[in-house]
């Protein structure tokens, strides 16, 4: 296997900026989604007791909650990636200790594992 190059300081700064921008965007989305999922907002929305309206409102609330939970998981991943940037372990696979491919980090800046280990993780090997 070819030795993987370390990330340059310039690339690390660029990745940090990208992660921080994504984090800020996700925080805004979480606030909006939490407001959308808030039952009190739906009660004040003027819905009558029509079962179809209640069902639609319930579905939309649950969707907003699900999206908010997903955004929160991504925020955790981003916060962990920022921590790894700070402590110098960013870009190192948590499973095998090898460097994570730059192309993978470009696609998923908060990746924790190299592609080989991620494949093994997903297949249970």
Notes on the protein architecture:
The protein has 125 residues and is an all-alpha fold. It contains five helices and no strands.
Task: Please supply descriptive tags for the structure shown above.
125 residues, mainly alpha, single chain, 69% helix, Four Helix Bundle (Hemerythrin (Met), subunit A)
Quick structural gist:
This protein has 125 residues and is mainly alpha-helical. The protein contains five helices and no strands.
What is the number of strand segments? Answer: 0
Beta-strand proportion: under 5%
Major pleated sheet: none
CATH class: Mainly Alpha
If you average the pLDDT, what whole number results?
Answer: 87
Low-confidence stretches: none
- What is the approximate shape? elongated
Order of helices and strands: HHHHH
CATH topology: Four Helix Bundle (Hemerythrin (Met), subunit A)
């Amino acid at each position: 296997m070819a030795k993987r190059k370390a990330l340059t300081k310039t690339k690390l700064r660029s990745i940090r900026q990208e992660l921080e921008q994504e984090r800020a965007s996700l925080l805004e989305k979480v606030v909006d989604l939490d407001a959308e999922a808030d039952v009190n907002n739906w009660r004040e929305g003027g819905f009558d007791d029509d079962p179809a309206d209640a069902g639609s409102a319930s579905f939309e609330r649950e969707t907003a909650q699900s999206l908010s939970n997903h955004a929160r998981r991504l925020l955790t991943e981003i916060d962990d990636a920022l921590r790894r940037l700070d402590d110098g372990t960013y870009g190192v696979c948590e499973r095998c200790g090898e460097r994570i491919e730059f192309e993978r980090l470009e696609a998923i800046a908060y990746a924790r594992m190299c592609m080989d280990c991620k494949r093994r993780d997903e297949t249970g090997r």
